[in-house]
Structures are given as structure tokens and as C-alpha cells.
Design brief:
Shape: flat
Oligomer: single chain
Strand content: 5-15%
Largest sheet: 4 strands, mixed
Distance between the termini: 22 Å
Order of helices and strands: EHEHEHHHHE
Structural class: alpha/beta
Number of strands: 4
Radius of gyration: 16 Å
Helix content: 40-55%
Length: 181
């Protein structure tokens, strides 16, 4: 299993989205050619800030990562959406899950992100076990508590696009209960 996870460093630099898409896609295809039996999970950048600045290219980069995963039919874990979407770092900060720099998770926040990855990996590998369901329930409870600092209609979900699927992840409906799916 290969986890291809991105932070936000490239979100602050100058970049060409077409070139970025091609480079990421080529790299993943090369990994697939060298390791054809590997399972690959791409994850995107979480909602963070650096020196008070919003990473202006993060939305575009996250969309490109999702597009590469869909085109190559590999798993994709939307960490940003799992956190609660754009602006979710503030409820995370209030819940003491971020360091004061709003760029790095503290130990508890990193542990929660790690649990998102565990859940995403279990889903990508099609583990339908009691442990998977318990982890989903724990993440749902935790995220409902974290996001209670935000507006009540805010949506939380982990989106894992499974291998060999052409169906893009569904967008959550407004006024739906918080969920991890």
C-alpha cells in the first residue's frame, strides 16, 4: 500500500495547474508500472494557514489530486472535507487540535487525522468489520463534537473513492446531519 499525501507547501507557490496535473498523474502511473500490485491512496491537503495566510492554490490542488485519483481509478481520501471543509481549522483550534500556528496539528489533532487515514485505508481495502464500523462511529462522534463550534448545518464526511469506480464522490446535502461516509 502506498499513501500519497499532500500538505500545503505547494499551495503557496507559483504553479501551472495543467502541468501539475500531468506531473502528478505521470508519477502515479510510473509507481503503478513499477509496483503493479500496489494499492495507492491519494489524500489531499487539510484546512490550514501559514503565517495567517490562506493557501490560495489549495482548492485547485485538492481538485487536481481528486481528478488524478478518479482518472486513474485509485482511492482518494478527502482530508479537507473530513475535517469539516474550508474554515474548519477554527473549530479544530477551539477543540485544541492545532498548534497556535494554525499550520500544524498538535498530538491530539495528528492522532485524529491518523484515524481518518486508518478509516480511509479500511474503506479502500473493503474491510467490512466491526472495527471499521466502530472507528466510523468514533470519528462521527468526535467530529460532531469538534464541529459543534461551527454552524449547525456544517457537513463532515470522509470521501474515499474506491479503486475501479467511475462514480465521483457525492456532495453532502445542506441541513443533513454531520456524517462520515
Amino acid at each position: 500500500m502506498i499513501i500519497f499525501s499532500y500538505g500545503t507547501n505547494e499551495s503557496y507557490s507559483k504553479f501551472d495547474s495543467s502541468s501539475y496535473f500531468s506531473k502528478i498523474k505521470s508519477f502515479v502511473q510510473e509507481v503503478q508500472n513499477v509496483l503493479p500490485k500496489s494499492v495507492i491512496l491519494i489524500s489531499n491537503a487539510p484546512d490550514t494557514r501559514s503565517a495567517g495566510k490562506t493557501p490560495d492554490k489549495e482548492f485547485c490542488i485538492n481538485n487536481i489530486l481528486n481528478a488524478v485519483a478518479q482518472e486513474l481509478k485509485i482511492s482518494y481520501l478527502d482530508i479537507n472535507k473530513a475535517m469539516g471543509g474550508w474554515g474548519s481549522l477554527y473549530p479544530w483550534q477551539k477543540s485544541n487540535l492545532f498548534l497556535p500556528d494554525l499550520l500544524h496539528f498538535n498530538q491530539e489533532g495528528a492522532k485524529l487525522i491518523g484515524n481518518f487515514f486508518c478509516y480511509g485505508l479500511m474503506e479502500a481495502a473493503h474491510f467490512d468489520t466491526t472495527i471499521t464500523h466502530e472507528l466510523k462511529d468514533q470519528l462521527t462522534t468526535k467530529m460532531n463534537a469538534v464541529l459543534s463550534y461551527s454552524i449547525p448545518t456544517h457537513q463532515t464526511e470522509i470521501v474515499v473513492v474506491e479503486n475501479n469506480t467511475d462514480t465521483p464522490p457525492k456532495k453532502p446535502l445542506k441541513n443533513q446531519q454531520n456524517r462520515i461516509s
